Amino acid sequence: MEGLTLSEAEQRYYCDLFSYCDTESTKKVASNGRVLELFRAAQLPNDVVMQIMELCGATRLGYFGRSQFYIALKLVAVAQSGLPLRVESLNTVKDLPLPRFVVSKNEQESRHTALYSSDADNPASYSGVIPPPPGRIQVKKGSVSHDTVQQRTSTDQQESTSPVVSPQQSPPTSPHTWRKHNRHPSGGNNERPLAGPGPFWAPFSEAQPGSSTSSDPIWSGHSPPPHQENWVSFADTPPTSALLAMHPASVQDQTTVRTVASATTTNEIRRQSSSYDDPWKITDEQRQYYVNQFKTIQPDLNGFIPGSAAKEFFTKSKLPILELSHIWELSDFDKDGALTLDEFCAAFHLVVARKNGYDLPEKLPESLMPKLIDLEDSTEVGEQTGEVGYSSSPAEAPPSKSPSMPSLNQTWPELNQSSEQWETFSERSSSSQTLTQFDSNIAPADPDTAIVHPVPIRMTPSKIHMQEMELKRTGSDHANPTSPLLVKPPDLPEENKISSSVKFTAGNTVNGYSSSDSYTSDPEQIGSTVTRQRSHSGTSPDNTAPPPPPPRPHPSHSRSSSLDMNRSFSVTPGQQQAGVVAYPPAVPPRPQPSQGAGPHVHRPVDAEGLIGHTSTSPQQIPEQPNFADFSQFEAFAVSGVNKEEEDEIETHSEVLQVEKPSDSASSLRAAKADGRVEDKAPANVPTSAGKGTTPLAPPPKPIRRRLKSEDELRPEAEEHTQKTGVIAAVLASQPSIPRSVGKDKKAIQASIRRNKETNTVLARLNSELQQQLKDVLEERISLEVQLEQLRPFSHL
Amino acid sequence: EWPVLVSVVCSPPQNYPLYIRSVPTENELKFHYTVHTSLDVVDEKISAMGKALVDQRELYLGLLYPTEDYKVYGYVTNSKVKFVMVVDSSNTALRDNEIRSMFRKLHNSYTDIMCNPFYNPGDRIHSR
């Protein structure tokens, strides 16, 4: 690269352009896209552009460094001047007009419309969308200010360039006003010989400087207006010369103003280039500008700008206090009365937008929300800003607000006009996202975090079952696959017990979800059981069928393990007892009424005949646990059988007893057995069969005997006497019984026993009869009912 | 909807209302009167209390006219800024807690406004 000497204006201009093209804020390389855009705007034939690029060395390097860029710009100027492109010409050509980059050719309104309509880059965005442009503008502003702080000229240049480049996108209003504004200052500074067709740059830059100078003092906080003005000027092909001329003048103390101006231009450029997705997006340049502004107030970028300082700053923007207040409300995100960098940028952006005629949004656009990130954030994610809640007419701001800026004043009306024009366009309301929304977004309710308690599965039975199973598992080694159950609930450490299931439920909440997790307290246990069951079934191979539903488990799954244990235990034994259950009932209640000697007496009566029945007796004997009596009865039987009275007693025991006495040991037994049989058989038959005449006969004999005994029972009186005699006999037969006094006693005792037995027998009979009576009555009732039912029919 | 709810923010020292908002009717004049009268009561309470200046709620049943039948609630901040709320008594759904929360929100909004450097204390408050 050859040395390139640039004039001041050129320097500034090129710097601005470079900043504009420096989309990535690298300050080193201009983005090729922008550069090419710029070159296109230069309205040079493509081959010339290529040549330029070659000459500047960009093609060699592959990118546009600053030097390359400058050279390229210079060459553009050369080319535009009609001079042949020569490397030598870079430095040889003096007084070369600044390269002109045609933006749009529309004059003010037409320009606006053109900008809006003809905005090739963002046709849609502009049409009727005011917000986007401001964003651009601001972006540019930011970037411009960025540079302008150091290089007024550059900013101006940038501004000039930006407008040129992004004419289409510059907001109609702003360019409009800008133009006018620039004109004014440029008028004063028209030393710029530039007079190109579309040289927005120059005019813009000049206008800006001019305006910025004038408004500089006021502008410190006013960056937007100048920007806007610049923008406006852009739109209108302001006299480039004027703009350029302004540069020197403005250079002096155009600090913020210039930056503002440049920023605006850059913003415009930005706007052009950036897509119009988010009208409120702050472009890089804009942001840079804002950052610079922020620095002027608060050197520490991480610090705050106190409200008072911010107030002063923004008051310079000549916006109505009301609007400023509104802007503040929007931008002070954390409501702390101070502005952070982000807040400041947002506020600045809003001011600029407002200046440009864009109505302030009701809510802070998303893109303007303070990002708690670094400052370099370029365009924030944009969202469309519809805004409009605040349609303060731009007319409010302007004229009255820029006393110190005559040019501005002039532009204000233009601004107003433009804004008025544009009000029609405007407005897409700012993004719906508002500060509040933003806040709310911060802490979204996270349902997932909440403990999930899915509706407990209705597995009550199984649950209970499971619980029981668990208990069983714990309690016993039942087939219930407790182990698998244990395995299943991971959170359930193990609990086979309900308690564990309880834990299970507790863990359920933690667990995300497992079948049991959802169970609530009650279901907890159930759930746990269920899950266990499930897991059980699923996991445990041993699981034989789901644990046999133990007896309906208790509805209240009280966590008392004890309870469960009880249940389980109860269950377990129940299950176990399933087979065992039979046992208890198995025991046939063979009441053994006192084995009165009576029956035995009977036996003895028949005992004689029964002796031969030893065979039978043993059969029956086992059924009756009254073997002990047998012995006695046998004794009795031997003594004599006069216990017929007992026969009525249907109890086997009686029979046994009867038989006992009637037979000798074995015979007695047999007799007893027979008697039992007989008794059993005729048990239901109140009346005795009247057998038993042959006491010792085989089965029939006993029966007969029994019957006989029964018969004998009837004539109790006689029997009694007989009994007594029998008893006595029995007693006498019984060796253990002393025959002397014992006989009487025994006889009495025997009679008593017999009586008792008879009583019991009779009682039984009574009960049976009554039951039969009931049945009969029921039958009668049913029959009567049927009759009643039939009657109507009969009547029919 | 509340038949009547009037919120008034009165700032010291003159206690002139900075903000009056009534929902949904616009009988502001009537409420102006009510508010002014209630302000006196508020002042009484403030002077009486001494230490605890923040009186969140003051059930102003005293102004419960048989005809009008509304309640006036008062709220005073530490800086003697008074909020007055007039509620229609027919709205029995409004509980004390609700009133308190409303006052709290009012207070928060007011502080937000105060934070705005562009707001000059004493100016009318504009709310959308």
TrEMBL record, chain B:
It is found in: Cytoplasm, Perinuclear region. Gene3D superfamilies: 3.30.450.70. One of its GO terms (cellular component) is perinuclear region of cytoplasm. Keywords: ER-Golgi transport, Transport. One of its GO terms (biological process) is endoplasmic reticulum to Golgi vesicle-mediated transport. CDD domains: TRAPPC2L (cd14854). Belongs to the TRAPP small subunits family. Sedlin subfamily. This is Trafficking protein particle complex subunit 2-like protein. It comes from Mycteria americana.
